[in-house]
Automatic annotation (TrEMBL):
This is Claudin. Belongs to the claudin family. The chain crosses the membrane at residues 7-27, 79-99, 119-141, 161-184. GO terms for molecular function: structural molecule activity. GO terms for cellular component: bicellular tight junction; plasma membrane. Claudins function as major constituents of the tight junction complexes that regulate the permeability of epithelia. Coiled coil: none annotated.
Length: 211
């Protein structure tokens, strides 16, 4: 029962992490314009994401523009896109595989060992999915931080971490932790002991002992 509860908790955490990775990938707030310097116009807030850039006016109106060409984008942005999309696809596969091995499901009830192995395999896929998202968000965040502290970067073009990065970090951590919990349902190897040999009982001597 305890392992089943841990398995269910791991699946819920992995599912929430996968949803968070999708939300983070779709959000345009991967980096936001910094207002740390002087003489910066704050009438609008500028955001940039993986797929579009947005400008929010002081009146609350938001105007977004999708990136025109894929080939004109920076290589780091293209790699971040690929990692996040791969993370989403791997997470989807991991969810299906893990559901098959859940103890509360009726699939593969005849072979409990294979059923538990499916849950473990799904957990491994979810962990890889979380690691891919963690690498993508950390790589992008490192790029933003390096540009921010670069003295050659103009003050009015510096960006800070956006909310999508924080959601991506939290979601990838949830996915990794949930996948680890799913892996805890790994079937244990039963130690086989050799069969104990029965010793014949000493037959009660009915005759007399001879010296």
């Amino acid at each position: 029962m305890a392992s089943g509860g841990l398995q269910l908790l791991g699946f819920i955490m992995a599912f929430l992490g996968w949803i968070g990775i999708i939300i983070s990938t779709a959000m345009p707030q991967w980096k936001m314009a910094s207002y740390a310097g002087d003489n910066i116009v704050t009438a609008q807030a500028l955001y940039e994401g993986l797929w579009m850039s947005c400008a929010m006016q002081s009146t609350g109106q938001i105007q977004c523009k999708v990136y025109d060409s894929l080939l004109k984008l920076e290589s780091t942005l293209q790699a971040t896109r690929a990692l996040m999309v791969a993370s989403i696809l791997l997470g989807l596969v991991g969810m299906f595989v893990a559901v098959t091995g859940m103890k509360c499901m009726k699939c593969m009830e005849d072979d409990q060992v294979k059923k538990m192995r499916m849950a473990v395999f799904g957990g491994v896929i979810v962990i890889i999915s979380g690691l891919a998202a963690l690498v993508a968000t950390s790589w992008y965040g490192n790029r933003v931080a390096r540009a921010f502290y670069d003295p050659f970067t103009p003050v009015n073009t510096r960006f800070e971490f956006g909310s999508a990065l924080f959601i991506g970090w939290a979601a990838s951590s949830l996915a990794i932790l949930g996948g680890s919990f799913l892996c805890c349902s790994c079937p244990r190897r039963e130690t086989s002991y050799p069969p104990t040999r029965g010793y014949p009982k000493n037959a009660s001597s009915t005759g007399k002992d001879y010296v």
